[in-house]
Design a protein that fits this description.
24 strands, mainly beta, 402 residues, Neuraminidase, four-stranded antiparallel β-sheet, 3% helix
């Protein structure tokens, strides 16, 4: 919903004023390799009615206090992988697909996002290979059978303007959706037009592909069958710009975030709201009710919780754990530079995320956090998506999806 690029701190500050990064568009990246420690043993996810949010890391008690060494759950960097962002686990909870900086990608224009191709690698860095081989790639996802992947690419529209994955006013209109075998062979094009299509994911049962499409500046959610047939528009909102859609375990409900076109570039950072919506366009439900940025939400396999990004003090981007039932989210990362693009393993024990080494949103690498103690795995799925009661005085805007 959100490609790894090379933007300096100052450039990003200018661009980010309206908040450039979308669910599929990603941050910066030069090229390097890093070493990491061995993966910690995953504890069994807590069962029953564990309140995952209350079990997450606490805030430092005093304002300005240094982050305690144990503020974060165990974290490790994936070794032997170039700069990469927006990573997602395969059904085996081991293989990862991500936008990875690659010298064979079409380079981005100055101060714009891009320069990535789709890679698959293991979360211990032992194996890695490339899916895309030209153009620029963006969002990607595994099919649940783990035989195929879906990805976004400009590979067949390299004569069109390169654009900027991180600015809705310049989204690459040559971005199309493709599927391929796990080894990168048998690439099949799913869309063929001159619109931006990205921010793609797949339902847990493998029957539906959900994605974002921008037509004449308007961004909405769409779905289609896994073979590209039965294309159908889900949202029809004039002002809201929906993106980064991900299915909940019921194979019907989609978690998404949206901002308003009328606020983009006017309010900084851009306020973003988390919603759920049925994939037939009904039951659009607002889940956050503040005026801050609630970016890049990704659902937990328990169907209740989700991880997402907020900005805290000193323009510090951190990852939080939220609850679809509402309430105050809890902070998961404590790091003075950028943390973003969170996603969870299907078993709910690991969280992938991107962490900046050095300057804000530069030198981005993929990390793994052990979240097994939070009890947000599939055993917690009740079969129903939680309802929510808006907080008293909330400025909720119930807008029909259609």
């Amino acid at each position: 919903m959100q490609s790894v690029n090379r933007i300096g701190v100052m450039a990003l500050t200018l661009l980010l004023a309206p908040l450039l990064i979308v669910g599929c568009g990603s941050p910066d990246q030069p090229a390097a390799t890093a070493e990491g420690e061995a993966a910690p043993a995953a504890e069994e996810a807590a069962a029953g009615d564990t309140d995952a949010v209350s079990q997450a890391s606490p805030w430092p008690e005093e304002e300005g206090a240094a982050y305690p060494a144990d503020a974060e759950l165990p974290v490790r960097q994936i070794p032997n992988i170039p700069e990469a962002a927006e990573a997602y686990y395969a059904p085996d909870n081991y293989h990862v697909i991500a936008q990875t900086q690659d010298p064979d990608a079409t380079p981005p224009e100055e101060r714009k996002a891009g320069g990535a191709l789709t890679w698959i690698f293991t979360d211990d860095g032992e194996k890695k290979w490339r899916i895309g081989d030209r153009g620029q790639d963006a969002c990607s996802y595994f099919f649940p059978d783990m035989k195929r992947v879906v990805f976004t690419s400009t590979r067949d529209n390299m004569d069109m303007p390169i654009g900027n994955w991180s600015d809705e006013r310049e989204y690459p209109q040559g971005a199309e959706l493709y599927i391929a075998d796990l080894d990168g062979s048998n690439v099949q094009r799913l869309t063929d037009n001159e619109w931006y299509e990205a921010e793609v994911s797949i339902s847990p049962n493998g029957e539906w592909i959900v994605f974002g499409r921008q037509i004449d500046g308007k961004m909405d959610l769409w779905r289609m069958r896994s073979d590209g047939t039965e294309e159908e528009q889900i949202t029809f909102t004039d002002d809201w710009q929906e993106g980064a859609p991900f299915y909940l375990p019921d194979n019907e409900t989609i978690l998404t975030r949206a901002w308003k076109r009328s606020q983009y570039g006017q309010v900084r950072p851009t306020p973003m709201t988390v919603f759920t919506v049925k994939h037939d366009g009904t039951e659009r439900t607002q889940r956050t009710f503040d005026d801050t940025m609630n970016w890049a939400p990704y659902p937990a396999p328990d169907g209740r919780h989700y991880v997402f990004v907020r900005i805290v003090e000193d323009n510090n981007w951190e990852i939080f754990l939220g609850d679809l039932e509402g309430g105050e989210p809890k902070r998961l990362t404590y790091n003075k530079s950028f943390d973003g693009f969170p996603s969870l393993s299907p078993d709910g024990t690991k969280m992938l995320f991107t962490r900046s080494h050095g300057g804000f949103m530069s030198n981005l690498f993929t990390y793994v956090m052990d979240v097994s103690s939070l009890g947000i795995g599939p055993d917690g799925w009740t079969g129903e998506v939680p309802a929510i009661t808006p907080p008293e005085g909330a400025s909720g805007e119930p807008v029909a999806a259609r």
